[in-house]
């Protein structure tokens, strides 16, 4: 794999969004964003990182702050500070709260071209009845058109047996954003592979 160069020019636009310009050559970049109470070493995240790296993909599993008691502003600030590569081959994979966090992040950035895409696993954009402490992530409007324009591909994975995020909420996320592909699996996808 050849070397690559990175150049970031960040500026805040009039509407408060960040404009991020990044030039990377010959390298796909994946960011995995875990969910509530999770960490980078949990579930299937390390397995997926290993598999993608075997294929020459650069993968970062971001450790989100205070995952036991997450705060929207802290999570978005963390994403803004730690996502450094944005281009046509940048992809996001979010699990549960990580999905809605990716959406909030994408509302904050303007890219010169659409990013590669996103995979939402057990995602949601409406309040989860059993988790009212997460409502601040879903209580304000999403700019779905801006989000869809920011991504070339959108896939959602959900389970009818999910006991944490109701299937209907993941299905609604698909209707709102991930119209490209919807895959149904089992449970909340917490098991390691």
From TrEMBL:
MF annotations from Gene Ontology: hydrolase activity
InterPro entries: AB_hydrolase_fold, RBBP9/YdeN
Domain of life: Bacteria
Pfam family, one: Ser_hydrolase
Chain segments annotated as coiled-coil in the UniProt record: none
Record keywords: Hydrolase
Gene3D superfamilies: alpha/beta hydrolase (3.40.50.1820)
PANTHER family for this protein: SERINE HYDROLASE RBBP9 (PTHR15394:SF3)
Protein name: Hydrolase yden
């Amino acid at each position: 794999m050849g070397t690559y160069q990175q150049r970031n020019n960040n500026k805040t636009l009039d509407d408060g969004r960040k404009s991020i310009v990044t030039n990377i050559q010959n390298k796909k970049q994946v960011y995995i964003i875990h969910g509530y109470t999770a960490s980078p070493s949990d579930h299937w995240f390390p397995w997926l990182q290993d598999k993608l790296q075997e294929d020459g993909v650069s993968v970062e599993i971001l450790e989100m702050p205070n995952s036991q008691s997450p705060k929207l502003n802290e999570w978005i600030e963390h994403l803004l500070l730690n996502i450094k590569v944005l281009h046509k081959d940048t992809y996001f994979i979010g699990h549960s709260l990580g999905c809605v966090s990716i959406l909030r992040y994408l509302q904050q950035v303007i890219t010169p071209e659409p990013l590669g895409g996103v995979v939402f696993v057990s995602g949601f954009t409406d309040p989860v009845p059993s988790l009212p402490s997460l409502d601040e992530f879903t209580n304000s409007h999403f700019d779905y058109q801006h989000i869809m324009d920011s991504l070339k591909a959108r896939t959602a994975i959900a389970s009818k047996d999910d006991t944490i995020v109701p299937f209907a909420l993941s299905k609604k996320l698909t209707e709102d954003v991930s119209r490209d592909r919807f895959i149904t699996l089992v449970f909340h996808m917490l098991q390691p592979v």
